[in-house]
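wait is this the right file?? whatever heres the structure
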């Protein structure tokens, strides 16, 4: 048996045991494609799944907020090739391995040298009959995935809080794991937390606190390590619909329940588009503002930033995005981080289709146009920095932090490529293709190359594939000429108001009735650069940008306040940077400070803000500010 067929066997057995795939018969071409998807090497894990691979985890943990440590036992069921003599796990940030047992008996293990991105391999010697590997360990307070928050950093300010952020390769900092997106496992967990708090995971979750502080979890569908997640806090639960609900601190619950009241409608719209939701329940938890991302698609429980609570439901595209990941990413998963666009490009496409279903084409087109603006800026940035290869859809992140691939290229260039395919074949055909793609590849991994085979076998003949320059989109730099540029009627109206203002119409007489966040964002982004203090003041008096409770509006406004030395906004900006840890806002704001000759101010604020940030934001800002 060669390596490849061995892996096919291992993974076929594994998915056969644990997946809840659709029961559609597998077509001939799918078999071929599945072989192709197996033929990949993930350079961001030490694991050798072709030799020995985990299939299930039983995790028993005690969480100590005093010492900021998790003490746990991770017991893995494994499958292995007959010839395998060892199994390799990933670890990071001095995960303290206390003992390892094979089938209950002490086992030999070794921790290898540490790589700055990958961490250190944990190699366990296998016996001939080995079925289960148990690892006793303790996390380090600096474990990169885990953020420990003081009560002061929460909304209620009464209890501490904890959350993990494992994507891309930080899961290994809180449990020893085969940490590649192509390796899936089911898990059960028992977590002990301080009284008065509730633990939640990317699994079947409790909805009420209990006296014992012991919570149990079950994730029956196989997930990769980056989707294993834990959060602990003093939060309540409120059901929103038949399959949807929200967890939030009590002081945020009312606002959150209003803001996300349409979650169930989104789920219904998503199912209508691309087939049944496979995870039974879709809940969301509102985390404290230090959460580094907008949202994280942890299965059954999206982790979300509170900065999407705008009071008017205007930033809920993020919910549609995380929900869409329940298909693209969580169901059909990028095989390696080089294929990240398969997760994110599809998700942005799906997100905008959900938003279109709910709010109409004009609304979705605004989102696409804003995405297009982001994309142009990102591509320009990479080109100016001499990194044209980072504008390829298929990345090469060898010897790099896979976090480097989390740019608008995967999201927006990926989106526009799929939009081009849709335009080429027509929506009806494309929807059939996508639905089949998600169902036929559910709980499997996908490489870019396997996707191309699938695309050619099921949607585009070679002539059409070549005529749209698909390879150039996927393996080429920059933005091809046939990018289907979006066109938003609503933004045309905004442009007209900007022109009117530039020509002397007073700001407070502009026609801005019923503008959404998106129109305001477009307005602010497209204001001329180099505005005088008086002009800035006029806009601020008319539209109260500095006092805006909308984080997107504020962050866009800071670009002008920083570059135009509009001092009245400085305190608000400083407070924002200290309380919010969402990297999407931090990067452009600190960059604007840096590029406007305000490095001293940037560093002063950062010094105060840094302890509030999660490691992924810290890492980016450290680099940006030379910390
Ligand atoms: Zn995403």
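ok assuming it is, sequence goes like this
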């Amino acid at each position: 048996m060669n390596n490849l067929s061995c892996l096919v066997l291992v993974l076929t057995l594994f998915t056969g045991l644990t997946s809840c795939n659709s029961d559609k018969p597998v077509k001939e071409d799918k078999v071929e494609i599945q072989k192709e998807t197996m033929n990949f090497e993930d350079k961001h894990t030490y694991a050798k799944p072709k030799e020995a691979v985990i299939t299930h985890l039983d995790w028993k943990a005690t969480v100590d907020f005093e010492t900021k440590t998790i003490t746990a036992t991770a017991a893995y069921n494994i499958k292995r090739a007959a010839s395998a003599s060892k199994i390799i796990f990933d670890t990071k940030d001095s995960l303290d391995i206390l003992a390892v047992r094979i089938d209950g008996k002490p086992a030999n293990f070794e921790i290898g040298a540490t790589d700055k991105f990958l961490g250190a391999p944990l190699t366990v010697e296998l016996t001939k009959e080995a079925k289960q590997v148990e690892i006793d360990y303790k996390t380090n307070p600096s474990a990169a995935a885990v953020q420990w928050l003081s009560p002061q950093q929460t909304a209620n300010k009464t209890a501490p809080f904890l959350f993990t952020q494992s994507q891309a390769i930080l899961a290994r900092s809180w449990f020893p794991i085969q940490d590649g997106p192509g390796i899936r496992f089911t898990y059960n967990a028992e977590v002990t937390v301080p009284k008065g708090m509730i633990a939640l995971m990317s699994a079947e979750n409790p909805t009420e606190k209990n006296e014992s502080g012991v919570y149990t979890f079950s994730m029956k569908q196989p997930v990769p390590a980056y989707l294993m997640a834990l959060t602990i806090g003093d939060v309540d639960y409120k059901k929103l619909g038949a399959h949807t609900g929200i967890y939030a601190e009590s002081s945020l619950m009312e606002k959150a329940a209003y803001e996300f009241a349409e979650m169930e409608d989104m789920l219904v719209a998503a199912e209508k588009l691309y087939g049944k939701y496979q995870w039974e329940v879709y809940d969301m938890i509102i985390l404290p503002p230090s959460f580094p991302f907008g949202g994280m698609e942890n299965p059954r429980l999206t982790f979300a930033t509170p900065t999407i609570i705008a009071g008017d439901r205007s930033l809920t595209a993020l919910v549609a995005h995380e929900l869409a990941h329940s298909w693209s990413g969580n169901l059909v998963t990028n095989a390696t981080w080089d294929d990240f666009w398969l997760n994110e490009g599809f998700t942005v496409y799906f997100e905008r289709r959900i938003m279109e279903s709910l709010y109409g084409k004009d609304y979705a087109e605004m989102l696409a146009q804003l995405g297009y603006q982001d994309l142009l800026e990102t591509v320009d940035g990479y080109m100016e920095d001499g990194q044209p290869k980072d504008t390829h859809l298929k990345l090469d992140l060898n010897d790099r932090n896979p976090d480097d691939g989390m740019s608008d290229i995967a999201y927006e260039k990926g989106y526009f490529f799929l939009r081009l395919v849709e335009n080429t074949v027509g929506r009806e055909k494309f929807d059939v293709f996508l639905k089949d793609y998600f169902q036929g590849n559910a709980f499997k991994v996908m490489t870019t190359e396997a996707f191309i085979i699938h695309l050619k076998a099921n949607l585009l003949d070679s002539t059409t594939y070549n005529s749209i320059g698909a390879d150039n989109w996927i393996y080429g730099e920059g933005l091809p000429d046939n990018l289907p540029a979006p066109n938003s009627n609503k933004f045309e109206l905004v442009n007209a108001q900007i022109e009117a203002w530039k020509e002397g119409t007073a700001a407070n007489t502009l026609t801005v009735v019923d503008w959404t966040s998106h129109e305001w964002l477009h307005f602010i982004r497209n204001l001329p650069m180099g505005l005088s203090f008086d002009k800035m003041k006029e806009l601020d008096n008319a539209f109260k940008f500095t006092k805006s409770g909308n984080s997107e509006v504020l962050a866009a406004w800071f670009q002008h306040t920083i570059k135009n030395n509009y001092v009245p906004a400085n305190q608000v900006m400083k407070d924002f940077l200290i309380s919010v840890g969402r990297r999407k806002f931090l990067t452009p704001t600190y960059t604007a400070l840096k590029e406007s000759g305000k490095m001293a101010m940037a560093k002063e604020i950062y010094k105060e803000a840094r302890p509030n940030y999660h490691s992924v934001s810290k890492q980016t800002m450290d680099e940006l500010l030379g910390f």
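Residues 52-271+280-308 form a domain with the Immunoglobulin-like fold (CATH 2.60.40.1730). so i think its the right one actually
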